[in-house]
Specification:
Helix 7 packs parallel to helix 9 and helix 7 packs antiparallel against helix 11. It is elongated, with a radius of gyration of 25 Å. The chain folds into two domains: 108 residues, no CATH class; 146 residues, DNA integrity scanning protein, DisA, N-terminal domain (YojJ-like (1, 3-Layer(aba) Sandwich). The chain is built from eleven helices and seven strands. A seven-stranded mixed beta sheet has the order 2-4-3-1-5-6-7, with helices on both faces. It has 289 residues and is of the alpha+beta class. Catalyzes the condensation of 2 ATP molecules into cyclic di-AMP (c-di-AMP), a second messenger used to regulate differing processes in different bacteria. It is an enzyme of class 2 (transferase). One of its GO terms (biological process) is cAMP biosynthetic process.
């Protein structure tokens, strides 16, 4: 006991007392750091963050081995690097500030919902209307590109198009994608049971494993599924076949029943269950064929 008392007096004598305000401060900082990390993880900043960590490790090694030239370069580059990061992350930072100013921000931080349903859910009628429209457009080889939003916001892509804000019906979708109409070129974005925008521009996929006979419409469908958790329905203008892109993978030649089945798989899933294993049950020969 005497040995333990001596050890405690030697090493813990100068440890400051922990107050209630200190505990609250630690909790607040932990809460903020956690949500900042979650925000980084869900944006393009995640790859940049990993790159910055790698550079910091390299600088630490340079300091350990006293590589003075590298340390001098690092000291002079840090200030410019910070400015460059702000410029590169400008869209993500703007989006974060916009979310901070929204009334729903506090509710989004809480682990439960307050009098609201999960954003992005859609009804069985919407599933049926999308499938019906795709089949009808496929029969006459009318190209279509329909992006169904889940959790990731698609606001930046909606801004590239024309606002529609209409309830989804097969007739409305067919009219939008009809040849020689003002809204037929580009993608339609669906949120819930409504079409939010049409003629939207989407990022093209750089996936070299995609079939060479696929055009811009299919590459755009795969591209948006690579950067968001959305599901994209594509109708080929050349063949009339229906395809679905999810998590960067393209599945082609779907029937009406198969399309409805896949849309229903994401219809009411909780956030934690929306994983990229959604397509685990598909036959392997369906992939990118």
């Amino acid at each position: 006991m005497e040995l333990i008392k001596t050890f405690a007096d030697k090493y813990f004598a100068h440890v400051p007392s922990l107050r209630i305000t200190d505990i609250v401060e630690i909790l607040i900082i932990s809460f903020l750091v956690y949500h900042i990390m979650v925000w980084i993880k869900n944006t393009k900043a995640w790859a940049l963050f990993k790159g910055v960590v790698l550079i910091m490790v390299f600088i630490i090694l340079a300091a350990v081995f006293e590589m003075n030239t590298i340390l001098w370069i690092a000291r002079n580059v840090v200030m410019y690097g910070a400015v460059a990061l702000v410029v590169v992350l400008q869209p993500e930072l703007r989006k974060a500030l916009e979310q901070l100013g929204k009334k729903e921000f506090l509710a989004s931080l809480l682990p439960f919902e307050i009098g609201k349903t999960e954003q992005g859910l859609f009804s069985d009628k919407t599933v049926h209307e999308i499938a019906k429209a795709c089949v009808e457009m496929g029969k006459v080889k009318t190209g279509a590109l329909i992006v169904v939003q889940q959790n990731d916001p698609l606001t930046e892509y909606e801004r590239t198009g024309i606002e529609v804000d209409g309830i989804i019906t097969s007739q409305l979708l067919i009219n939008i994608f009809e040849h020689n109409t003002p809204l037929h070129d580009g993608a339609v974005i669906v949120r819930g049971d409504r079409i939010t925008s049409a003629t939207c521009y989407l990022p093209l996929s750089d996936n070299m494993s995609l079939s060479k006979d696929l055009g811009t419409r299919h590459r755009a469908g795969v591209g948006i599924s690579e950067v968001t958790d959305s599901m994209t329905v594509i109708v080929s203008e050349e063949t009339g076949k229906i395809s679905v892109a999810y998590s960067g993978v393209l599945y082609r030649g779907l029937s009406s029943a198969e399309l409805e089945e896949q849309l229903k798989k994401i219809q009411n899933k909780p956030v934690e269950e929306k994983e990229h294993r959604l397509w685990k049950g598909w036959p392997k020969n369906e992939k990118n064929k």
